[in-house]
Design a protein that fits this description.
One of its GO terms (molecular function) is FAD binding. The chain is α/β, with parallel strands linked by helices. Among the domains are: 331 residues, Glycosidases (TIM Barrel); 230 residues, Vanillyl-alcohol Oxidase, Chain A, domain 3. The protein has 31 helices and 27 strands. Helix 2 runs parallel beside helix 3 and helix 11 runs parallel beside helix 12. The strands form 5 sheets. The protein has an 8-stranded parallel β-sheet.
Length: 820
């Protein structure tokens, strides 16, 4: 088997899991400009420090090469040549003209150096301690020229506008300052507009309180806590900290090599590997190092308040980290358990000692283990939506049922949480509670085989919808699956599963004859109507809570029509009420073979101000009958119409649910707010439509959002009793979901959530039962009540809780819309 990497217990090695590096100024100590050769030497030195590996990142204060107007700083090329990552800095305290030069230098670097540069950019800092210098504290300390919160907010918006459409778009944007500046009320807008907050603090200079080396760690973490208190859950990077080994005494703080070592071991070693950190510094620089193109001396670029010392020597405090001192500090560092406990991350201490080779020895030859430090790890954990995604500590790619069993037992023995993956499309907020999980990746178990009886198929638990649909179709068979091609077959079935064929045959979960399930304790069982029937009942609608399905026995059906037919019409928003009123009438007599599929979506080429109504009639039948059924829709004024036919596997692309369509597109934050309805309420849906239009116009970041209205036939669904399975929503006629889509931007998250809830609220209020929302579990946002997701009947929840206690008494399957 291929064992993909290993974790060691060494904190120094564990540090590679997060970014760590040093700060680098633009000039040397004597005021001369640093060149490419200077930066090259510094970056090489940082990466080769004896006993301190992993210092492979550089935080810069400016993007402009010293001595030029707007040439890119030579540190960028040096970073490429040494494979050093870069925290870009844009100086923001010298006025708009200089800031524009910073932007020009950055964009020129992206254009000239290409992805070799942009791939190494881990973030962009708009300014450094500008807020502190402009604050009363900074003014009193004569800290120099700064910038206000409003100015920094404007600069951040300017940056985002300029990088839009470039390879730098989407890079996390932040600002660096002191905690005393971050907590000021007038700077709240800056915290809201960034993706991360940079924290600078030097306990050595906090001479207004006890600040001897014995209090240094406590003072540092107290300062970090103050910054985190206004971060709103956003990452806080430690962008400057350190302790000098030469310099005047500050209060009780003494600059010495021993104290520098102590600070490194107590603070540095608790930081490295646990959060992004740039130490101050590898080599001292001139404190007037921002004396660049406009010949305006810029102020000191750190918060070293030297007002108590007036001599030039006092201002030349050296924060140089000596390699030997670094090695000493690492060797004398506290145990990993103590360090991680101090950070409130004691659960990671177990991981540092996880003997992954023991698991490797138990797995099949095809299986593999992928750990965070490996280059391929990001691809293995990439999901449709990264917002509130699980925090993954390891991925185990399984190929056999025994692989799954071994992985679960291994995790349980070491107290590690685990989570199954079949498609990576799960997007419930509850997944955010999964910390340091072992992902059991089932995508290697993707076989699809029609059985000899011709009426059933064996389907691997990791097969995706596209593979299942295509392979069955090639064999002349079809069955009910989810619509979106990139979704795993298992997730829809475990939650019910809506699809094109449900009007004829019922839900996806209704097609299950039996399932092989690895229980949360590692035991493998078969669940069917004859064997473990109570577990079988729970799997059909609440299955994410009970185990990992490795294989399905599934009902399949002969293909009736080699081509499905469709009519697609696009209407302007003015026709909304007519369209929905007619739809309500048509759905009263909707044939089992027909689906009404609609979007409210922005198509500016048709209407630049409002969404349009994209409406498809999809029919498992001949084209002439589809035309006859859809004819009343043609009587309503429309912009375009299209009539055609296609094999059923092609319908996903036609309805924007193919692997290359928005339904599978990665790189967006997609928030979903589903609701089950009996019929369309015209005034309520008009409110939804108008709110979408208003939001798209006011905030173009949300213009890629859409509203999906799934109007399947429900004949097959209602053919089964609602007591036959855990799926609770068989009485619904329509499934409606808002998709609030935007590029990842933490400052928009609260707005997006409020918008999505508001849209759903309009429909709920008019539903006839506003106290009882019904939300499809596979679309649920993750904040809905248990009754909303799993049913309002008291007996249903009681039974689910009882079965949860029987089949998962330790509540190990608890991350996907959990029952308990």
């Amino acid at each position: 088997m291929f064992f993909r990497g290993a974790l060691t217990a060494s904190l120094a090695t564990a540090a590679a899991a997060q970014i760590q590096g040093f700060n680098y100024g633009a000039t040397n100590e004597d005021g001369s400009c640093r060149t490419y050769d200077d930066f090259l030497g510094y970056f090489q030195t940082a990466k080769s420090l004896a006993g301190a590996p992993g210092f492979a990142s550089a935080r810069l204060y400016t993007s402009i090469q010293c001595g030029t107007v707007n040439d890119p700083i030579s540190a960028y090329q040096a970073a490429i040549d040494t494979d050093t990552s870069i925290l870009v800095g844009l100086w923001a305290s010298a006025g708009r003209g200089v800031y524009e030069n910073e932007l020009n230098a950055l964009l020129r670097a992206a254009e000239q150096l290409g992805t070799a540069f942009t791939d190494r950019v881990v973030g962009i800092s708009v300014g450094s301690e500008d807020l502190y210098r402009s604050s009363p504290d900074g003014v009193a300390a004569n800290a120099g020229v700064g910038a206000t919160g409003a100015e920094i907010e404007g600069y951040i918006g300017w940056l985002r506008d300029w990088v839009r459409g470039t390879a730098l778009e989407g890079k996390p944007v932040g600002h660096v300052d002191t905690w005393t500046a971050w907590v000021r009320a007038e700077n709240a807008g800056v915290a809201a507009s960034v993706d991360w907050l940079g924290h600078n603090s030097f306990p050595y200079f906090e001479s207004t309180k006890p600040n001897a080396i014995e209090q240094a760690a406590e003072n540092f973490w107290s300062a970090v806590g103050n910054t985190e208190s206004v971060a709103g859950g956003k990452p806080v990077y430690v962008t400057e900290t350190g302790w000098p080994h030469i310099g005047p005494q500050q209060g009780a703080a003494v600059a010495s090599v021993d104290n520098a070592r102590t600070y490194w071991s107590q603070v540095g070693c608790a930081l490295f590997g646990q959060r992004n950190v740039w130490w101050y510094t590898l080599l001292d620089a001139n404190t007037a190092q921002t004396d660049i193109s406009n010949s305006t001396p810029r102020p000191v670029q750190h918060n070293l308040d030297l007002k108590q010392s007036t001599t030039r020597e006092a201002r030349k405090i050296v924060m140089e980290v000596v390699a030997a001192g670094v090695a000493w500090a690492l060797n004398k560092a506290p145990s990993s358990q103590k360090v991680l406990t101090r950070l409130g991350l004691s659960f990671l201490a177990t991981q540092t000692a996880v003997p992954w080779s023991d698991l490797s020895a138990q797995l099949s030859p095809q299986a593999s283990i992928v750990l965070p430090e490996e280059p391929s790890f990001a691809g293995h954990v990439s999901r449709w939506r990264e917002w509130h995604a699980p925090d993954v500590g390891a991925v185990v790619n399984v190929f056999t049922e025994s692989d799954v069993q071994a992985t679960i037992r291994f995790a349980n023995e070491r107290g590690l949480p685990f989570l199954a993956r079949s498609g990576g499309h799960g997007a419930t907020e509850s997944l955010h509670a999964a910390k340091d999980v072992v992902v059991v990746d089932l995508r290697g178990r993707n076989e699809v085989r029609v059985n000899a009886d011709g009426r059933t198929a064996t389907i691997g638990g990791g097969a995706n919808v596209k593979k299942v649909v295509n392979e069955l179709w090639s064999a002349g068979k079809q069955t009910v699956t989810g619509i979106c091609e990139c979704v795993g077959i298992s997730a829809p079935a475990l939650g019910g599963g809506h699809g094109w064929l449900q009007g004829q045959y019922g839900l996806a979960s209704d097609q299950v004859i039996s399932a092989r399930v690895v229980l949360p304790d590692g035991e493998a069982v078969t669940a069917s109507e004859e064997s473990n029937s109570d577990l079988f009942w729970a799997l059909q609608g609440a299955g994410h809570n009970f185990g990992i399905v490795t294989e399905w026995q599934y009902r399949v059906y002969d293909v009736k029509n080699s081509e499905w037919s469709f009519e697609i019409l696009i209407y302007l928003g003015d026709e909304l009420e007519k369209v929905l009123e007619l739809t309500n009438q048509m759905m009263k007599t909707q044939p089992a073979e027909v689906i009404h599929w609609m979007y409210f979506v922005n198509i500016p080429e048709i209407d630049p101000q409002r969404p349009v109504i994209w409406y498809a009639i999809i029919h498992d039948g001949p084209l002439d009958k589809t035309r006859d059924y859809a004819q009343p829709l043609h009587d309503i004024p429309h912009v375009t119409s299209e009539t055609g036919s296609a094999p059923m596997p092609d319908l996903a692309d036609k309805t924007f649910m193919g692997t290359e369509s928005i339904g599978c597109a990665k790189g967006y934050t997609g928030l979903r707010y589903p609701i089950g309805l009996k019929t369309y309420d015209l005034p309520a849906t008009r409110k939804v439509f108008d709110d979408i239009a208003d939001m798209s116009n006011r905030m173009p970041e949300f213009a890629g959002s859409f509203f999906l209205l799934e109007g399947y036939s429900t004949h097959g669904v209602k053919a089964r009793s609602d007591k036959d399975s855990a799926f609770p929503h068989r009485g619904d006629e329509i499934l409606v979901t808002s998709y609030v889509m935007y590029k990842p931007n933490a400052s928009l998250d609260a707005i997006a959530q409020e918008h999505g809830e508001k849209l759903r609220g309009h429909l709920l209020e008019a539903s006839g039962d506003p106290e009882r929302l019904r939300a499809y579990v596979n679309y649920a946002h993750g904040v809905e009540s248990l009754e909303t997701v799993y049913g309002w009947e008291e007996w249903r929840l009681e039974r689910l809780r009882e079965l949860k206690g029987k089949w998962d008494p330790q509540n190990r399957m608890r991350f996907y819309n959990p029952i308990v």
